[in-house]
Amino acid sequence: MVLACNELKGSMLNRSNANEIMMCLNSFMTIKCIAFDLDNTLWAVNPVIAKAESSFYEWLKSYYPKITQKYSGEALVQHRMDYMYAKPEMHHNLTDLRKSWMRALADEIGYDHDYVEPGFDVFWSARNDVTFYDGALEMLEKLSKKYSLGVITNGNADVNKIGVGHLFDFSLSSEAAGVSKPHKDIFHKAMELSDHDFHQTVYVGDDPERDIIGAQQVGMKAIWYNPTLMPWPGGQTPTAVIQHHHQLEDKIVNL
Ligand SMILES: [Mg+2]
């Protein structure tokens, strides 16, 4: 596209048509696509995970009581976390990691593995029962009419399961990408799903390293969602910062 613009620019220079040259350049500079992080950017993740763990525990209590007789809810979460910390090579795929832990738990207690898929579905349904931050859903609905929207997430929330998939043109998880943010490959793979390139895309997220520095290293602009006004921890600073979702559109227009 840059080559096409240069050719157009050259022909227009001959006609001394400065306005059209600027329009051409602007068409490549203007943001066309907004890609979002999900957890702690569009909703708070801790409450929804706590609710999902509780739903899973209640389900175990009804159908696999030997597990809940041995472990309290809190102890079972710690059991899972200990397992997950020992498997860093699986951290990009939280679905497989949780199912792997469930199989290990079944082996320990003496159940077979048949409970893994229905048990995971209980957790996952509750994990996608999110409560959007005030104004976040309205912001997405409004921006989806003007921009191409996308998702790049390290988690296993699913905008289609949540019921807002129609607002997004693409969604890529670390599970599908094979690597987690801030790895460059997840951003490159996301752009393969998008109709736009890095320079036309802005990424919005709450995590300085995974979201902001990750996106900027591949040439995206990046807006830091920082509702609690945390100090920037260092490294390349964000393109812009917002405290509230309603500020996002103005920031993007002025990039
Ligand atoms: Mg996040």
Automatic annotation (TrEMBL):
Top-level taxonomic group: Bacteria
Required cofactor(s): Mg(2+)
GO biological process: riboflavin biosynthetic process
Signal peptide range: none
Molecular-function annotations in GO: hydrolase activity
Keywords for this protein: Hydrolase, Magnesium
Matching InterPro entries: HAD-like_hydrolase, HAD-like_sf, HAD-SF_hydro_IA, HAD_sf
Protein name listed in UniProt: Putative hydrolase of the HAD superfamily
Organism listed in the record: Cocleimonas flava
Top-level taxonomy: Bacteria, Pseudomonadati, Pseudomonadota, Gammaproteobacteria, Thiotrichales
